[in-house]
DNA sequence: ACTATTTTTTAGTATAGCCTAAATTAATAT
DNA sequence: ATATTAATTTAGGCTATACTAAAAAATAGT
């Protein structure tokens, strides 16, 4: 469709576009100025400014007062940034021994480094990983994503098993909690018991350790069976 | 002396400071606005602006119309940036198989990533290297530099030997030339002949290959004996 | 349907970093 | 020593990205 080369975005435009992409993934509706403002921690007025600019570069469709939709070009660019972010996360965790709750901020800086060849070589060096340390899929060069089928832990039946493949909430606090109880990405789990009235469950991790998890935690863990 | 924490610099201020540091290393006099302008590829008027800002942050001493001197704080900050730049160069060459003439631009971006812990872990991961791929010393966390004694290749006597440890000119064109003739950092050389009237010489590289080098090339190669 | 509230945009301001053109200061040459 | 030239700074402008306050549009409540 788009014959033209993708536009070049500034550091800041890239961040806004990434935020818009993530927000679009959630509710399938258009994304509101206020939501973006919250996500980006800037004022709505600043968001309006930026939306005009992103609209001019055709990475979003912008109708005043009615929120925005990301375009195909926008999606490609956002996925390129996400690819870089996640590859750097893999690097930080696997090569530099960062724990998975420490990598976000640093990757947020590294993702803006422009060199294409750098990312290709990094990808190769890391063995072409398909998922980041949080279990999120790494898009390929062309923005294609192979995601694995996943269910919230809360949907697994008693005595059902699976592997933790991702988390929804990736706040540092949550990740630290998971680390503490040994529920890392890739851990094999088995549901031992489910308590109906409060939504909490008991699971066995790696056939060794039994832990209790509250409904809040259970809702934020994704399982591949 | 300076009790206060070092100031935080913007991306652009960091680049100017690095340029001023490098220029100070050459002639031991104050650095002129024009020199900085040439180095940074910006106009002298922009340099004046920036000098005022860097002066306000006390990383340089700025006397209008008389050029600038870098302060102790400035030196520390510049060396931190240089440390990051050179560590990333080592990473790019040793881990990602970049050739040494490809690393400059990418390292110029990577050097601005702020995380302290990232640089510590990178340093560790690389095995605490003391020199970058061009043979330039990597300052430690505190800005201390252990440089090895080095002579320009032009000063080596006939039949004198040594190892190439650095280059003065590190333009991509020059580095590609060296690569082509096999004169990499670490190569062992022996001076076979020196031609007085044009300053060119003949050297033997790694006891195998004899090559001729013009005065221009010879002046830009540094040898450790 | 119409008012009150919320959301979004516009208008105007600030700062960073660049620019050109003009003014000023320093250096040089006779 | 003064006049010319060169280097540097100032003045004013531009763009990007933020902000606040005010205006305008959309939404919600009765």
TrEMBL record, chains A, B:
Record localization: Cytoplasm
Transmembrane regions listed in the UniProt entry: none
Keywords, ordered alphabetically: Activator, Cytoplasm, DNA-binding, Manganese, Repressor, Transcription, Transcription regulation
Alphabetized GO MF terms: DNA binding; DNA-binding transcription factor activity; protein dimerization activity; transition metal ion binding
InterPro entries registered for this protein in UniProt: DtxR_MntR_Metal-Reg (IPR050536), Fe-transptr_FeoA-like (IPR007167), Fe_dep_repressor (IPR001367), Fe_dep_repressor_sf (IPR036421), FeoA_core_dom (IPR038157), HTH_DTXR (IPR022687), Iron_dep_repressor (IPR022689), WH-like_DNA-bd_sf (IPR036388)
Domain (HTH dtxR-type) ranges: 1-71
Main location: cytoplasm
A cellular component annotation (GO) from this entry: cytoplasm
Function: In the presence of manganese, represses expression of mntH and mntS. Up-regulates expression of mntP.
Quaternary structure and interacting proteins, as annotated: Homodimer.
Similarity annotation: Belongs to the DtxR/MntR family.
Name of this protein: Transcriptional regulator MntR
Lineage summary: Bacteria, Pseudomonadati, Bacteroidota, Cytophagia, Cytophagales
């Amino acid at each position: 469709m788009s014959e033209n080369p993708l536009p070049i975005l500034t550091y800041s435009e890239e961040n806004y576009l990434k935020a818009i992409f993530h927000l679009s993934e959630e509710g399938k509706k258009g994304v509101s100025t206020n939501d973006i403002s919250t996500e980006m921690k800037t004022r709505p007025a600043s968001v309006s400014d930026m939306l005009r600019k992103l609209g001019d570069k055709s990475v979003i469709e912008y109708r005043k007062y009615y929120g925005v939709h990301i375009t195909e070009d926008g999606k490609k660019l956002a996925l390129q940034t996400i690819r870089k972010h996640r590859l750097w996360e893999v690097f930080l965790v696997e090569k530099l021994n960062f724990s998975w709750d420490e990598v976000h901020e640093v990757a947020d800086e590294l993702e803006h480094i422009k060199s294409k060849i750098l990312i290709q070589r990094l990808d190769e060096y890391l063995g072409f990983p398909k998922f980041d340390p949080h279990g999120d899929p790494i898009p390929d060069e062309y923005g294609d994503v192979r995601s694995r089928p996943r269910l919230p832990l809360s949907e697994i039946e008693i005595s059902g098993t699976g592997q933790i493949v991702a988390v929804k909430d990736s706040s540092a606090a949550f990740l630290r909690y998971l680390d503490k109880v040994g529920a890392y990405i890739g851990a094999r789990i088995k549901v031992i018991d489910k308590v109906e009235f409060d939504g909490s469950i008991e699971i066995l991790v790696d056939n060794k350790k039994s832990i209790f998890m509250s409904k809040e935690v259970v809702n934020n863990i994704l399982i591949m069976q």
